[in-house]
Amino acid sequence: MSQDSIDLDHPFQLRPGLVIKNRFFKSAMSEQLGDRQHNPTAGLIRLYQTWAEGGTGLLITGNVMVDRTALGEPKNVALDDQSDVALFRQWAKASQSQGAQVWMQLNHPGKQIPKFLSREPVAPSAIPLGAGLESAFAKPRALTEAEIQSIIGKFAQAARLAEEAGFNGVQIHGAHGYLVSQFLSPRHNQRQDQWGGSLENRMRFVLSVYRAIRDVTSPDFAVGIKLNSADYMKGGFESNESMEVVKALSEAGIDLIEISGGTYESPSMVGHKMAQSTQDREAYFLAFAEQARALISTPLVVTGGFRSAAAMREALRQGATDMIGLARPLAVMPDLPHRVLADESFRIDIKRPSTGIRPIDRMTMLDITWYESQLARMAKGQPPKPRLSAWSAVAQTLSGLGAHAFRQRRA
Length: 411
Known about the structure:
Strand order of the largest sheet: 3-4-6-9-10-11-12-13
Distance between the termini: 38 Å
Structural class: alpha/beta
CATH superfamily of the largest domain: Aldolase class I
Strand content: 5-15%
Oligomer: single chain
CATH class of the largest domain: Alpha Beta
Largest sheet: 8 strands, parallel, barrel
Order of helices and strands: EEEHEEHEEEHEHHHEHEHHEHEHHHHH
């Protein structure tokens, strides 16, 4: 099949024996639907069945924590030897209805843990977050060698349990300023041992996590990564370094690379400070993907900015991305794949939610919590409400998390 003839409904063979039914890729979003034991709730299971029935080919879960003592948010799901694997099996089975595949995103937040959850988080180096986040996030303690090895083992254990529960694969969260991203960043990783300094040392952690996962899962189990094209911060992880990491992961045999960008301090993944030319093209990180495609044959996914069928098809036909990564559009239109395939002129326009009072918008992290309100509706069996008022989302956030709602949230 020529590149020009590829369309959104065409199956994609990730590798021999692993075929995804179409080119729609649901990227990870924070669902905040874990129970008090950090297992998936019935609502979370219902939400993923809704997305599967909506026509998406590959579903990536919201970040599942590999260490229940290191949570990015109070209602995170965690997977370890204390988890109820039977509930995870139900989650996987519901997600796979209608022929969809589901991969579990695995994460450790590092220092991106709000103070109300941890007064002493860990990180590669004892460097606090900046950009005004110092009041919400405590200064971290630098990890010891033994702790680094333990966390690598926890990623592997979670992947093994995910396969046992019936998930088709896992995705390592290596973007958005979480622990893997912190190791890659020279701004946040200033270690003087084998885990810091040169790029070769800084990428040692992510490659070690990948290899540890491969060692404990079957050859049929998929392993991917979400990786920053850049941190978009002075002194941070730059695009030339990211390209070297892409090549190293490709050579190591990773199955799929999802390209994103930004951190808590510079949230480019939600369009922060994006050039107008990039916004017009819709896909935020497509230029980086085009450069990567010239160097590697590993399947790529670009997430961020897609809003029209025309832009999705054009990105596929250019060959820079093998699938179309979608997040927020699927929060308000879970059957978007069906709609796109039925209408070549399809377009979804999502207005940024606002109460009209910027301090309240910032305080309640409305750019995130408004979408979480939509996910909560679907978890209850209700349809999303694209015209949900910002004030309703604020009220739901306050009632659901109380004082926690006023703290910095995941991006």
